[in-house]
Amino acid sequence: MGDGWTMRKMWVGAGVAVALGMGFVMLLVVGVYLVAGNLAGGAGGGAKKLAKGSVPAAYQPIVQKWGNLCPAINPALLAAQLYQESGFNPQARSAAAAQGIAQFIPGTWATHGIDGDGDGDRDVWDPADAIPSAASYDCSLASYVKDVPGDPTRNMLASYNAGAYAVIKYQGVPPYRETQNYVKVITTLEKSFAAPTTRVDPSEQAAGAIAYAQKKLGTPYLWGGNGTADQGGRFDCSGLTKAAYESVGIKLPRVANDQYNAGAHPARDELLPGDLVFFSDDLTNSRAIRHVGIYVGGGYMIDAPRTGAVIRFDPIDTPDYFGATRVTEDGAKALPTTV
Questions:
Q1: H helical segments located in the chain
Q2: Cα 247 from chain centroid?
Q3: Strands 276-279 and 291-297
Q4: pTM for the predicted model, two decimal places
Q5: What is the DSSP letter of 87?
Q6: For residue range 28-63, what is the model confidence (pLDDT) as tens digits?
Q7: Which entry of 2, 21, 84, 286 is 20 to 30 Å from 137 by CA?
Q8: d(CA 60, CA 37)
């Protein structure tokens, strides 16, 4: 019967375990897992369109437009680069003198910066110039290595990190650990910025994350809580989700808006138990996310809601529901630690 049947049994078992604390929600959880069973063999997919709210609204039209500048890039890939470089911060500065949302160093900007908005200047601090310049630079690199065998996007990313000469010399991604890691990170992050075109794979670690969170039901909330002994084992919302996935070997960032980029984004009617669910007062900007919980099925999550409350089950269908992430190990590993 294969892996699909094994995963079905795991999902159902997890649903029953969670139901011990949920009472009437039990049948709903089990039902979600049974319906989800046929997704075990599905594949996630990227698209030329951005996932809802994955890029701040002010930059979304620019990224969508310039992300289609040449075949080697797409909007989700361009968004992944900007997130990796600056976390979409137009005022970002690095110790290496990199500047702006796309983190151009002055020499590269002098050569490759363009007047993206046509206002007569080239301003590295203006996203309307810097984002088009990043896309243009990517496409220039792709043109330099267009005759190199292999995937043009991977060769372009390798050129961005190691230089076009190295890609030409090795006729593909060079055997440098840093470069190979950079290519993997950006292509993985791309999935968290793309609107999926198919249903995304269930997480194998989801049941374990739910089991961990279930054991914390009734624990008082603590702002900044990571569940450590000196904090009395208490959590805030993202501290709980981080600890739950860490218990199954996946290390997430500490804050909720970065946890959103740990995988692809299933639609509301495609949610599976174990998905992280997010809430925001600004539904156009994932950087504004302020709350996260772990979906358990039947329209409910386990979350650490606020000061004065305890870890509990809460409904997810509220006006501030932002979206969901199906966490993957590679997705978590790809997240930058500096944004």
A1: 2-22, 26-36, 60-66, 75-86, 106-112, 127-144, 152-162, 164-170, 177-193, 206-215, 237-246, 256-259, 329-334
A2: 20
A3: antiparallel
A4: 0.83
A5: T
A6: 343 334 334 333 333 333 346 899 899 999 999 999
A7: 286
A8: 35
